[in-house]
What we know:
Blueprint: H1 17-47, H2 54-57, H3 60-75
Amino acid sequence: xxxxxxNGFVLFLRPNIQQFLILVLVNAFIGAMxxxxxxxxxLIGKSKFGIESSAIIVSFIPSFGxxxxxxxxxxG
Length: 76
């Protein structure tokens, strides 16, 4: 039996399964988008911009994490 907290929220996973499944779905879409981005951007870099160095083309991938972390720190 799950008791609501003093502020009216119900804790734990079972009563909040719908919100949890939405979170899983959103994370799956984001993961798929990042995977797609990592395969398409190098192709665009080579064909549209004439960049031959693969290191330069994929350098955005490791820089994405730290930049996102810093921006999330300020946004949160």
